[in-house]
Design goal:
With 586 residues, the chain is mainly α. The chain is 55% helix and 6% strand. It folds into 3 domains: 323 residues, no CATH class; 124 residues; 111 residues, no CATH class.
Length: 586
């Protein structure tokens, strides 16, 4: 018995270690994704110069954490002068120019991103440990190992664990905050109250989606008020609290303390300063962004004129609101304002097939057996509310926006699976073992192309472009593999429609850039008959997303490519006639 318990504790740390190895090992084959360069530069700018003007549409914490190791490096910042940084004041897109200069031109990008990605993987591993911890407290050691197995071998979490983005770190803070809120509703100790409120404060400076925590906690708190379970509050009384009004006061106290600390955390993240940079000559152009929404402009002007929240935060919120509805791709169609079915479809095609089958098994078991306790409620309600929040927002850029629902789902699945295992039925145990082997094998088989993962029910990554693109499949991550293909086939130069912001020249790729590419600096070059015969097109552009004309590369869709680079880039060979008349859609 003691040996079994020790083995569980060993695997409790071995599984996250495997997760770290898969994450860092896979990222060695990948180039930075679309937003990472500007996020890394922005975090460095916040820490190094106290300048919050770059990339203000996200709260600063994650970017600062990722960039923190860079302060120990002797970086060349000679090209990032105060005069250059001031240009961001007038044109927020100039931050991308400075980011490219710092990361790819003046310093070694691989070194910078290695340090930043270690930080991101640490946050992801911390989330895995929290998932195991909550499963252990609710269901026991077997459930903790199952929960850890589900998250550590989930291709989507491996893919996003190394990316300098807010999505997976926010999953960590939402999950940990709700975990401590659950603990506080069981026993309001000083530790639980402090951990709950601090977790909320961290969430407030991680991502603007932190507002979803409020309805989640309100629903969970209301459920506690109307439940028969008493509330322990060693802070106020040694007696069990059964009075509803007394419990309501304690829940309200948790919410109030969390809100106060969250507000203080926002000011602390911006160095308790209203201005985006000290002694700046002009204010950020918030009014320009909110001009189309009079009520929004009035609200944000009120915040700015009364110094209610930092200027960069106001600017970022305004910018995010403007782009709540944006073009997206789903099942072969492009919409200019998103799809209601986007996230349900993304969940069905990107969630591993064994996990989907386990969801079906767990649902049937729960309906038939009706296990005692309210654990399922506390685990499923947060995920459901956040999922509905994402569907309502219609910000359809990828599964990454609903990553926070999975940790709650993994704990519930692990708990239910452990109950099924304990039932002793051989068929159930065999089914669970089969799903575990399937998940492990599928994840190892996908290495290192985790970002492009699609489950077996839809045909795997090779058919992913039929369902979704963008950060679900093609986010600019395969420049290294493209260069390897060019070297192997002795291709010196290509035409390239690249959906990404990493610098292909940094990876020794010589290309003429086609419309849509960030590096499309010679717009007529691809119409010349002497252009390179090989054309590389990112799947996102091939689908018609984020290009001026959705049909621009449509005629390539019916052609057979000569190569497909890790499911994200297709390569075609064009004849002299094609090159003579150009590649633009007619």
């Amino acid at each position: 018995m003691e040996l079994c318990r020790c083995a569980k504790r060993v695997f409790y740390f071995v599984l996250p270690l495997i997760f770290v190895v898969l994450s860092l090992g896979s990222v060695a084959h990948k180039s930075p994704t679309y937003d990472e360069t500007v996020h890394l530069f922005a975090g460095y700018s916040y820490l190094k110069w106290g300048d919050y003007r770059a990339n203000p549409e996200h709260p600063p914490l994650v970017k600062m954490l990722a960039a923190a190791p860079l302060l120990a490096l002797d970086l060349n910042t000679s090209g990032i002068t105060p005069r250059e940084r001031y240009k961001v004041q007038r044109d927020k897109n100039y931050g991308w120019v400075l980011a490219h200069r710092l990361v790819f031109l003046d310093n070694d990008a691989e070194t910078l991103f290695l340090y930043a990605r270690v930080v991101m993987v640490f946050l992801a591993a911390t989330l895995a440990l929290y998932v195991g911890r909550w499963a252990w407290e609710l269901y026991g050691g077997e459930a903790a190992l199952i929960a850890l197995f589900l998250i550590c071998f989930d291709p989507n979490f491996i893919a996003h664990s190394t990316i300098v983005q807010t999505d997976l770190p926010f999953a960590l803070v939402l999950f940990s905050a709700t975990y401590f809120f659950w603990r506080s509703l069981k026993a309001l100790t000083w530790f639980n109250l402090t951990a709950t409120s601090l977790s909320f404060a961290v969430a407030a400076v991680t991502k603007f989606s932190f507002v979803a925590i409020i309805p989640i906690w309100l629903v969970l708190g209301a459920a506690k008020l109307f439940s028969r379970e008493p509330l322990q509050s060693p802070i106020t009384t040694p007696q069990l609290i059964t009075d509803r009004w007394h419990r309501a006061a304690l829940v309200g106290t948790i919410l109030l303390v969390s809100a106060v600390l969250g507000y203080l955390a926002i000011w602390a993240a911006y160095q308790f300063r209203f201005e985006a940079i000290l002694f700046q000559r002009d204010k950020l152009p918030i009014a320009d962004l909110s001009a189309d929404h009079s009520w929004l402009g009035w609200l944000f002007q009120l915040c700015r004129e009364n110094y209610l929240i930092p200027e960069a935060l106001v600017y970022g919120l305004t910018d995010v609101y403007r782009y709540m509805e944006r073009s997206s791709y789903l099942l072969g169609e492009v919409s200019q304002n998103g799809f209601w079915l986007y996230f349900p479809v993304a969940f069905l095609v990107k969630t591993p097939a064994p996990t989907l089958l386990l969801i079906v098994m767990a649902t049937i078991y729960t309906v038939v057996r009706r296990p005692k306790g309210n654990a399922a409620f506390f685990l499923l309600i947060p995920g459901l509310i956040f999922f509905l929040f994402a569907v309502w927002s219609r910000l359809n850029v990828g599964l990454r926006h609903i990553l926070p629902i999975y940790p709650f789902l993994f704990v519930w699945l692990a708990g239910t699976a452990s109950l099924m295992w304990r039932s002793g039925l051989r068929m159930r145990r065999a089914a669970l073992l089969l799903l575990g082997v399937w998940l492990c094998g599928s994840t190892l088989w996908t290495y290192p192309n985790y970002l492009a993962y699609f489950n077996e029910f839809v045909g795997g990554p090779s058919r992913g472009h039929l369902f979704l693109v963008d950060s679900n499949l093609d986010w600019g991550q395969d420049l290294k593999a493209l260069k390897e293909w060019m070297t192997r086939n002795q291709i010196d130069k290509i035409q390239f429609a690249y959906f990404g912001t990493a610098d292909p020249a940094y990876y020794k790729i010589d290309a003429d850039y086609l419309p849509g590419s960030v590096y499309h600096t010679q717009p007529e070059l691809h119409d010349v008959a002497s252009s390179p015969p090989y054309v590389a097109i990112s799947e996102t552009f091939l689908a018609g997303l984020y290009v001026d004309n959705p049909a621009r590369y449509a005629r390539f869709r019916a052609r057979n490519p000569v190569a497909v680079i890790n499911h994200s880039i297709r390569i075609y060979k064009v004849g002299a006639d094609d090159r003579a008349r150009g590649l633009d859609a007619k």
